[in-house]
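Obj: model holo form, ligand = magnesium ion.
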Amino acid sequence: MRRVTLTQFLIEQQRKGLMGADLRLLMEVVARAVKAIAVNVSKGALADVLGEAGSDNVQGEAQKKLDVIANDILIQANEWGGHLAAMASEEVEEIRPIPSDYPRGGFLLLFDPLDGSSNIDVNISVGTIFSVLKCPEGNAVPTEADFMQPGTSQVAAGYSVYGPATQLVLTVGDGVHGFTLDREMGSFIYTHPNMTIPEDTKEYAINASNQRYWEPPVQRYISELQAGKEGPRERDFNMRWVASMVADVHRILTRGGVFMYPMDSKMQAQGGKLRLMYEANPMAMIVEAAGGAATTGRERILSIQPTKLHQRVPVVLGSKNEVERVTRYHNEG
Ligand code: AHM
Ligand code: MG
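Output (holo structure tokens):
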């Protein structure tokens, strides 16, 4: 069987007119950073990368050593290549314009360097999520305002999952494509062409410990699933919750499902748990490109006009018919 590498795949996408050379090269750089993060993640305690970094990020969350390492790898890999105007990270409060000693390109890169950090120390899958926007022209130095574009403006999005295998999944709008890292060769191989999400599913993912804080539409939806064969849905559903969004979304891209981090009364003031710009938007772009749907419960995630870099939103995504049902329950109430 002919093995197609990520490099070959991207060149073919460019030849089909689906991406320009600059976006292709940016994807290569991100993939290289992902490989470096995978090396660090896989060494674990041997490289002393587990545990707390001793600092807090902009969200007031304690940073893990690997959060900091992954963030540094992504910034260092991307800042000198000439493809970007600026970057933004979950781990850094302000945007990071490309330093003036490097050429400035036309894209903005946003990332959650290590998603699912609570799983690092227990050797459960974590990942990286990224989103690419075009930088509006005009400003000599990009500002946060340049990032305030709805998810529909993303030109590429992707994530990696550092699990038993390291996988990279990406879209430039034309389908969703998955690659598996061949560690010996050091290259990503195209293993999962045209990933799609079935419209129906029997699997859901939600942190049920938050049940007492959920809004009535979510209470209704989950209790109907839990009622199984004897309930209004007349069939049994299964539940999975990895607590790494990348791993939960990856499962949904592989065999369907619905993932929810809905609004709850404890998170009302902050708007939700997950971050719009570098978690919800890239995942929503991928899920929609794979035939699924992504809403806040009330509106399409990709249509939200962002107002803040680290803005949070409720997230319901995955198999279309379930996401539409949850959204209908919210909008009926
Ligand atoms: P992080 O970016 O700080 O790791 O937080 C995001 C993660 C998601 O990956 C996951 O879905 C969620 O937080 C898990 O939350 P909880 O610990 O409430 O189950
Ligand atoms: Mg995250």
